[in-house]
Design brief:
about 280 residues; alpha/beta; Rossmann fold; 9 helices
Length: about 280
């Protein structure tokens, strides 16, 4: 583990406005970096097809500024598609990934993956990856082969401590989606490495994804960060705030004249009461 000041990031997807949970996540990442003299990065994760809208990303920047945060922005994911494609192709060539045309529904009707040899494409389908053949096929990680290659792996979460990477429950996760240039797992792992992130901060709802990311790091020979999965904001009934419908977004609050710095302090103190 490195003693250098941490580099953290907030990586929102511009497919809807930011809410309180996002604000909390951004503040945690920001403060962990700033308190230790590190850097806080903003990365726009805009590879969600037509759902990604630049207008939302512009609002995100205004929201963060309104909360009183300062950041360095790194390139958005849509500018890095070649990078994702190169890594995906490498995994395919090394026999660690395979093309799969089945839908999630079709897959769920099949017997357990180990017995479902029909899922795996012959090596001769590799050539399809670079061209249009990729259309209609998803690229999946062959988790058994991947685990054979990397062996036992550990990862460290600031709060949960040392954890053994156990991605098998997720099966052969998608690395490149049928309709999109990369899956969340592949893109975020490559980007965190490329951006020099040393402390990956995000909500506990994404804790399990880190098992997969740790394996991808090992396969692609990427540096290994530390993680900090923070708790999720709950409402007065103990429900996840993110699930609460109709609560105002950060930009709504901003436009209604609420003080961003005051909200940020309330979130830091965690004594936030849900108003309006
Ligand atoms: N773009 C992802 C999201 O908005 C980022 C998750 C992460 O921080 O890894 O959920």
């Amino acid at each position: 583990m490195s003693d250098l000041p941490p580099i953290t990031r907030f990586a929102p997807s511009p497919n809807g406005p930011l809410h309180l949970g996002h604000a909390y996540s951004a503040i945690v990442a920001h403060d962990l970096a700033r308190e230790a003299g590190g850097r806080f990065l903003l990365r726009i994760e805009d590879i969600d097809g037509p759902r990604s809208k630049p207008e939302f990303a512009d609002e995100f920047r205004r929201d963060l500024e309104w909360l009183g945060l300062e950041w360095d922005e790194v390139p958005a994911q849509s500018t890095r598609l070649d990078h994702y494609a190169a890594a995906a192709e490498e995994l395919l060539e090394r026999g660690l990934a395979y093309l799969c045309c089945l839908t999630r529904k079709e897959l769920s009707g099949l017997p357990p993956r180990r017995g479902a040899d029909g899922l795996k494409y012959p090596a001769s389908s590799r050539g399809q990856f670079a061209g249009e053949g990729m259309e209609g096929a998803a690229l999946r990680l062959d988790i058994d082969r991947a685990m054979e290659e990397v062996g036992e792996l550990l990862w460290i979460d600031d709060i949960a401590g040392e954890i053994k990477a156990d991605p098998r429950p997720f099966g052969d996760v998608v690395l490149v989606r049928k309709d999109l240039p990369a899956s969340y797992h592949l893109a975020v792992t490559l980007d965190d490495a490329r951006d020099g992130v040393t402390l990956v901060t995000r909500g506990l709802d994404l804790f399990a994804a880190s098992h997969i990311h740790r394996v991808l790091q090992a396969l692609l020979d990427l540096p290994v960060p530390r993680w900090h999965h923070h708790r999720l904001l709950l409402d007065e009934n103990g429900e996840k705030l993110a699930k609460r419908k109709g609560s105002p977004s950060l930009s709504d609050r901003r436009r209604m004249g609420e003080e961003g710095a005051v909200l940020a302090e309330q979130l830091r103190l965690q004594n936030f009461t849900l108003g309006t």
